[in-house]
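To close the section, here is one more complete example, presented without commentary so you can practise reading it yourself. The ligand is magnesium ion.
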Amino acid sequence: MKTKSISGVLFDLDQTLIDFLKMKRYSCKAAIDAMIKSGLVIKKKKAERILFELYDRHGIEDPLIFQRFLAKVNRKIDYPLLAKAIAAYRKAQRTVLQPYPNARQTLSKLKRKGIKLGVVSDASRIKAHVRLAEMDLADFFEVIIALEDTGKTKPHPAPFRKAIQKLRIPAEKILFVGDNPHRDIAGAKAVGMKTAWAKYGHPAKYFGSKTEAKGRPKPDYTLRRFAQLNKIFR
Ligand SMILES: [Mg+2]
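Output:
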């Protein structure tokens, strides 16, 4: 492997550095349990299905999700119930949101090898920075590109180019690590970076394997665990 030529690694955030969907699923279950315990009459499974349908429609980061949920299943938004849901969600989130196993150790090793590290996320600046700080990962990265930096989301070349410019390393010496074949891998390839597909974080395991198996761009490397990055740089 010609990895001696790589001097920078850029990471996608959700499902690449941290298992956001695992947190989401766990926290939503906790919120539903809390609402049922406080008097909401609904079957757990049905509640989960409705909640995730709402996420599908309004986006996985929708800040009003429990308002929408209660408006739908309870006809009106009962604020004490809403508060119970939000409180349970936040409490669960704090206990579950973690980087992938061995992420910190692997990032430390890369840094000790003199490799520059960065993040390119479609999340807003505040979300990206807070999430990294919560995970104790922020100090590893010299460059953090978030939505506001270019106003464009991956696979648009703008966020990738901005990261290249800030990292001050030519594209062909950068490895991009991401879970989404079309947004991360195709986008990074298009600007000339090397690519590693974070297969371990790919949402197929949450949403079934129907997700765009066809026409998947071919990465230079496929990672089944985060720590496999070490092998690339050995
Ligand atoms: Mg991702």
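Once you have examined the tokens, check your reading against these statements. The pocket of magnesium ion is lined by residues 12, 14-16, 178-180 (CB under 6 Å). The first strand starts at residue 8 and ends at 11.
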